[in-house]
Amino acid sequence: MTTTVKYLRFEAEGRVKYGFIDGDNVRELAGHYVRTAVLTGVEYEFSNVKVLSPTVPSKVICIGLNYKAHAAERGKQLPEEPMMFLKPPSSIIGTGEEIVLPDIAKDVEYEGELAVVIGKRAYQVSAADAAQHVFGVTVLNDVSERYYQAQDGQWGRAKGFHTFCPLGPYVVSGLDYQNLQLETKLNGVVKQSASTADMIFTVDELVAYASQVMILEPGDILTTGTPAGVGPLQKGDLCEITIEGVGTLSNRVRA
Fold first, then answer.
1. What kind and span of H or E run contains 86?
2. Where are the alpha helices (DSSP H) in the chain?
3. What CATH number did the domain enclosing 96 receive?
4. Which of 134, 222, 232, 255 could staple 236 via S-S, CB 3.0–4.6 A?
5. What residues make up the domain containing 12?
């Protein structure tokens, strides 16, 4: 049985660090977990660290309409190949941080998703080899402004607003990411519940597809689409997205 490890990016003693969870403690690594497994010998009590977004990627690659039921609720035909777009890394926030609705927003929705973190540089790899380039998985909320998504004809503005990419809380290695349960709650009410096994294109197929277009660097994020049940976010709402074995990404919308 593969051992799972929860890695994190955190703040302690006024500095940003990387490490992994060991019981009630965080063991510090000498650098980003995708690049080194060297321990510094320093440990912190988990209660004394601030959990940050787990990686600072060069890019966030997203996939649209990758669950049949979500395509149906959006009134869209099933894609013949993955629908790929980007979110700016500047839109990333960590668990516990606030989603800020821009003044020009008209219709903002949550989208709970499984995201993979690239561990080894990938370019033009096959689906059969893709898993070798995946370090682990995390949780992502692809917050989306639907009015501009429909109006603009492309999704850069609708998906790219500041704080529209909550990410975390951890990156977990050793999980079977092809069959994990995902659940989204809004103010304590379950809105999304699905398995990653329901994807149209598998994680490995998505990594391979994206790598035909661009170089995937260690620490990059590739998120895999959202299941059915997306819905509106209002000021004061609490959105909690849980993925089996990973944890819960929790963000409140600023009132």
1. strand 83-87
2. 68-73, 146-152, 156-160, 203-211
3. 3.90.850.10
4. 255
5. 5-51
